[in-house]
């Protein structure tokens, strides 16, 4: 199984010093890191980055369809409970909070009012 990590510049040097011959022990599994990608790759669509301003500029004024695929098991904290059902608040609320914290371009908290799911394909 291959797992991809997108690392900030400050962590790349640390991760590149890892001993790739020794596993990381995670619960009952030994994980072997075989490669660390720090630059965009044409054959690896998950390895990329852009600034908040670039992401904002790429947004379309006409295309308002958003498709999400969670490629790992995902739960959402709702109060004291976890739920496997994604809601607009559980997905976009946290993203908007982080955007507003780190970006100079503010997102209105009410932007999620126009988001309605139209398809779910949830499996265990």
Short précis:
By secondary structure, the chain is of the alpha+beta class. 24% of the residues lie in helices and 10% in strands.
Q: Would you give an account of this structure?
A:
The longest helix is centred in the C-terminal third of the chain and has 15 residues. The two termini are 18 Å apart. A two-stranded antiparallel sheet has the order 1-2. The protein has three helices and four strands; from the N terminus they run H-E-E-H-E-E-H. The chain is of the alpha+beta class and 124 residues long.
Q: What's the rounded overall pLDDT mean?
A: 80
Helix content: 10-25%
The succession of helices and strands, N to C, reads HEEHEEH
N-to-C span: 18 Å
Main beta sheet? 2 strands, antiparallel
Strand order of the largest sheet: 1-2
How much strand?
5-15%
Structural class by sheet pairing and helices: alpha+beta
Evaluate the radius of gyration: 18 Å
Number of helices: 3
Number of separate strands:
4
Low-confidence runs (pLDDT<50, min 5 residues)?
none
Structural shape: extended
List the helices and strands and how they pair.
Blueprint: H1 9-16, E1 24-26, E2 29-31, H2 52-58, E3 76-78, E4 81-83, H3 88-102
Antiparallel strand pairs: 1-2, 3-4
């Amino acid at each position: 199984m291959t797992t991809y990590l997108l690392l900030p510049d400050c962590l790349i040097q640390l991760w590149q010093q890892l001993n790739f011959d020794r596993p990381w022990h995670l619960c009952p599994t030994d994980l072997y890191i075989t490669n660390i990608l720090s630059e965009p790759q044409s054959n690896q669509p998950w390895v990329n980055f852009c600034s908040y301003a670039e992401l904002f500029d790429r947004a379309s004024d006409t295309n308002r369809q958003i498709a999400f695929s969670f490629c790992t098991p995902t739960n959402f904290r709702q109060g004291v409970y976890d739920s496997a059902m994604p809601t607009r608040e559980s997905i976009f609320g946290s993203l908007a909070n982080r955007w507003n914290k780190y970006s100079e371009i503010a997102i209105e908290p009410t932007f999620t009012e126009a988001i309605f799911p139209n398809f779910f394909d949830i499996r265990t």
